[in-house]
Amino acid sequence: MTKVGDGPRSGDRGCQWCRRVLPEQTMGRPRRFCSQACRQWHWVGRQRAGELQLSEDELIVARTELDTLHDELYVLACAVNDAERDLSSAGARPTAAELREIVDWLLEAARPLRDRELTPPA
User: Fold this and answer.
1) Average pLDDT score over residue span 86-90
2) Which residues, listed in sequence order, are joined to residue 21 by a DSSP beta bridge?
3) Closest to 21 in 3D by CA, of 29, 13, 33
4) Which of 9, 68, 69, 122 has the fewest CB atoms inside 10 Å of its own CB, making it the most exposed?
C-alpha cells in the first residue's frame, strides 16, 4: 500500500509539484496536486518560467540546493562503493551483524536524499 509521503513508484501518479504519490481515488477528476500549497507553487513556477522564457524542460535551482544535493549524492555513492567492497572483500561470507552494519550505512547515506524536498526560492 502506498502512503502519501512515499516517493513515486512505477505506475503511481505523483503531485505535479513535489512528486509525492497521490492517494488513490475512486470518484471524481484525478488529482494533480497533493495540497493547495503545491497547486499554488506550480502556478507561481509556470508564471515565473514564462517571464524568464524558460521551456518546460528548463529549471532554475539555487546554487546552495544544487551543492547540497551533489554532496548527498557523493555520500551515497561512497556508501555504495564501501558496501560493494565490504561484500566482496576476502571472499568470506559476511555475518548477519556485518550485513546489518552495511545496510545501516547505506540507509543512513540514502535518507537525506529520500527526505529532500527542493524548496522554492524566497
Assistant:
1) 80
2) 14
3) 13
4) 122
